[in-house]
Design goal:
single chain; 215 residues; alpha+beta; 3-stranded mixed β-sheet; 7 helices
C-alpha cells in the first residue's frame, strides 16, 4: 500500500496481552469450516478443530469424545489476536484492534429445539439440548477514518469461521464511536451476500491469507 493511514499507532507489548493458549492438538485430518466461508481458504490451510470431539485421539473413551468442550471469550481472543494488521507488520492484539472486553458469547437454543419447545411447552431444556452460540466481536480501528476497517472485520470473521465448530454463529462489528462510517461497515459485515461477493475477489483474498498467516 502506497500510503500508510496511521504511521504511529499505539502498540501493546506481547507481555501485556491476555492469553491462555492451549497446547497444540494432535494433527489427525484436516477439517474445513462449515457455512458461508467454507471455501474462502484452501483446504491445506486448515488444521484439526481443537474444539471438535472428533479430533481427539482414538484411544479416548466414547463418552469423552461426545463431550462438548466449552469455549470462552479468552479462547476467542486467542484465535484472533494473532491476526496480522493489513497495514502494519503488527497483530490486531498488539494494536488493540481486538480486545478481550469487546468479545461476548450468547448461547441460544438451536432453531429446531426452539420450535419444538414452542409447540410443546412441557419440553424442558437439558444438557443434551442443541445450543447455538453467537460470538460477537467489536473491532476498534486504530483511526476513525480507517479505510481498511471492512477488511479487518472480514479477517476476524474468516478466522473464526475457519476455527470454530458449526454450533457457533459469528457476528463481527465495528465498536460504536470508533469509526466515522461504522454503520455502513457493519451493514457490509452483516450482509451474507456482500461478504460472499467480497470473498470472490482474488486481490482481497490474497490480503486475507496474508493476515491469517501467523494464526
Amino acid at each position: 500500500m502506497s500510503e500508510i493511514l496511521n504511521a504511529n499507532p499505539t502498540i501493546r507489548s506481547a507481555a501485556d496481552l491476555p492469553s491462555r493458549r492451549r497446547e497444540p492438538s494432535k494433527k489427525t485430518k484436516s477439517q474445513r469450516p462449515f457455512g458461508l466461508l467454507s471455501s474462502a481458504i484452501p483446504e491445506s490451510a486448515y488444521t484439526p478443530d481443537p474444539f471438535n470431539p472428533s479430533s481427539s485421539s482414538e484411544g479416548e473413551s466414547s463418552e469423552d469424545e461426545n463431550e462438548v468442550e466449552p469455549i470462552d471469550e479468552q479462547e476467542i481472543y486467542d484465535l484472533i489476536a494473532s491476526i496480522q494488521d493489513p497495514e502494519h507488520p503488527l497483530t490486531l492484539g498488539s494494536l488493540s484492534v481486538v480486545n478481550l472486553p469487546d468479545i461476548s458469547l450468547t448461547p441460544t437454543l438451536h432453531p429446531s429445539s426452539s420450535s419444538s419447545s414452542l409447540s410443546n411447552p412441557s419440553t424442558t431444556t437439558t444438557k443434551n439440548t442443541p445450543v447455538m452460540t453467537t460470538v460477537t466481536v467489536l473491532v476498534t480501528p486504530t483511526i476513525t477514518h480507517c479505510s481498511l476497517a471492512t477488511v479487518i472485520g472480514l479477517g476476524v470473521r474468516v478466522r473464526l469461521e475457519q476455527a470454530l465448530p458449526p454450533r457457533f454463529r459469528v457476528d463481527v462489528r465495528i465498536k460504536e464511536g470508533t469509526h466515522s462510517t461504522a454503520e455502513q461497515v457493519n451493514r457490509q459485515l452483516g450482509d451474507k451476500e456482500r461478504v460472499a461477493a467480497a470473498l470472490e475477489n482474488g486481490t482481497l483474498m490474497g490480503v486475507l491469507r496474508k493476515m491469517l498467516e501467523g494464526c
